[in-house]
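Format notes (please read before filing issues)

Several people have asked whether sequences and structure tokens are stored in separate files. They are not. Every record keeps both together, in the order shown below: the sequence lines, then the token lines. Line labels are part of the format and must not be stripped during preprocessing.
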Amino acid sequence: MTPLRTALFQGPGGVPCSTGDSLAALDAAARRAALAGARLLLTSELYLTGYAVGDALPGLAEPADGPGAQSVAEIAAAHGLAIAYGYPERAGEALHNAVQLVGPGGDRLANYRKTHLFGAFETAWFTPGDEPVVQAEFDGVRLGLLICYDVEFPETVRAHALAGTELLLVPTALMRPYEIVAHTLLPARAWESQLYIAYANRCGPEGDFDFAGLSCLAAPDGTARARAGSGDDLVHADVDPGFLKASRAENTYLGDRRPGLYGSLVHD
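Then the structure lines:
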């Protein structure tokens, strides 16, 4: 089983970028990632538009097959790698905080809408998604998609593990002072649910927010195989299906579950 080299793009930081600026930065990052041998590149939450866009959001949102998607597909095809990117999706009258996965041929592989919205900005503008597990197969690895706050709920990650997700892609906009999520929670989630988690954050001040950076790729042994700093960064590490299989054989959390005892967890 060939490892899947995965790159995490943390940037550009400091301002809410125009879509054109974001696409230019993505093209440069994809070129660097491909030269480093990456087959998959993950960006941050709402990457195309920036996060702190306020009431400009409705004018920036676009359909899943809109011009932004077409531009990302061209970048993916030009550099021969898959790209998962965050963007605001328009679906009729509804707006969704979404992540879309595009293959190295420019084909659309999956689209996920954030199910757990965070804070006043998101709850005011976005409609939460209602599909908890969205997956795609790529290079022999089963990929899953979540966004930021979603991964902070153990139920969402465990649902992916039980559905066979091997690498969970999580574009995020983690703000200060919640660095504990990147430092502690992500490796713990990867350990307790026995999968890899790629977590690509925004960085620096943006509007009223200050993003923490610290993007990481957490492995099923609870370690961070790659870790970004607090500024613009591009890091990468290998996702090894063979290592995951061995780890799941040794760490038997998933097989030792007793679902019959957990009914109260799904009742309000």
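For reference, the curators noted about this record: The first strand starts at residue 4 and ends at 10. The helical segments are 19-35, 57-60, 67-79, 119-125, 154-162, 180-193, 241-250.
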